[in-house]
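thought: user wants a sequence for this fold. calling inverse folding tool.
action: design(structure=
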């Protein structure tokens, strides 16, 4: 049964339960590069997954340019896999044509190779105090692939 496996920056790769992102020193990002001049950060995330996840490479980069955040994921699996990129918000988002409306006039402009879904979920009372609600919304952006590059923007 596929399950979502979280890791740094909210990216999720669907895999079997045994191949979820793991905790511990050996499961980490590598090749982190911060370019202050370009306002960008990139890292390889494949080490966050055990070998049975069959993630050959998962490079995440983020940059701030012209008032928007660009988040780029380049993934390669050993065989077919599913990437499921997650964003979480406390205000209900709305899927529109090629974008997702967020709070305060912001939008998530998603790569059209990805399929969007919205999932509401409950959090415990201790966590809910931070958000002012015990219901949060997870935005899924999914694709089945052997390899691909996906660029999403928040503005």
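)
observation: tool returned 155 residues.
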């Amino acid at each position: 049964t596929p399950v979502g496996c979280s890791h740094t920056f909210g990216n999720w790769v669907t895999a079997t339960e045994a191949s979820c992102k793991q905790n511990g020193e050996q499961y980490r990002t590598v090749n982190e590069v911060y370019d202050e001049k370009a306002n960008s950060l990139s890292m390889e995330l494949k080490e966050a997954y055990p070998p049975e996840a069959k993630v050959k490479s998962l490079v995440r980069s983020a940059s701030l340019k012209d008032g928007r955040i660009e988040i780029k994921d380049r993934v390669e699996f050993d065989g077919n896999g599913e990437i499921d990129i997650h964003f979480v918000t406390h205000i209900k988002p709305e899927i529109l044509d090629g974008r997702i409306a967020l709070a305060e006039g912001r939008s998530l402009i998603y790569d059209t190779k990805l399929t969007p879904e919205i999932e509401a979920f409950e959090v415990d009372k201790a966590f809910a105090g931070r958000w002012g609600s015990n219901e949060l919304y997870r935005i899924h952006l999914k694709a089945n692939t052997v390899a691909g590059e996906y660029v999403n923007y928040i503005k």
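thought: summarizing for user.
answer: Here is the designed sequence. The helical segments are 125-131.
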